[in-house]
Task: structure prediction
Amino acid sequence: MDAEAGRTEEWADVTPDAARRLLTAAVQAFAERGYHATTTRDIAGRAGMSPAALYIHYRTKEELLYRISGVGHRLALDILGRARDGGGSAAERLADAVRTFVRWHAEHHTTARVVQYELGALAEEHHAEIVGMRRETDAAVRAIVEDGVAAGEFDVVDVAGTSLAVLSLCVDVARWFREDGKRSPGEVGELYAGLALRMVGCGG
Result:
């Protein structure tokens, strides 16, 4: 089990304790086995509970995934929204957005893998809600890029496509990051912030 398994701050608002334990157990199981290969028995067992106890807190396995996705996407919106609305130049705000977003995906790579790559398993109404939140995260990055173009800081022909590419670069960190790798989450964040600036034609 990686070091992330011991961190539960993103679930701090989930109560009671049993519901939080089930949520963190589901994150680990979904990340390791995939949503469809994971059973409610797997999740309950990881949480040290009986399968029947799970249904006291969550009606279905899909509800667990929905809660995980909702928390993750709200955190993403918070990170990118603060960068969009922060002070400084567009280049400074884009670097801050990428640096912080990448660091979160590295530090919470297990959670982030579930949040980013199990979206298709959500029920139709939940999927629509989460996709709407993803559009808002895309819009936050796009707004920074548009500001940079308008100010003459960025040289971007396709704002929408470039914004999507920047987000994709950040999200992919969750797929490959390892805690025993050569770079820390902060170092990866700094590297990617520089790459993002080059993507928008700003070498500073």
Notes: The mean pLDDT is 91. The CA atoms of residues 2 and 179 lie 7 Å apart. DSSP finds ten helices and no strands in the chain.
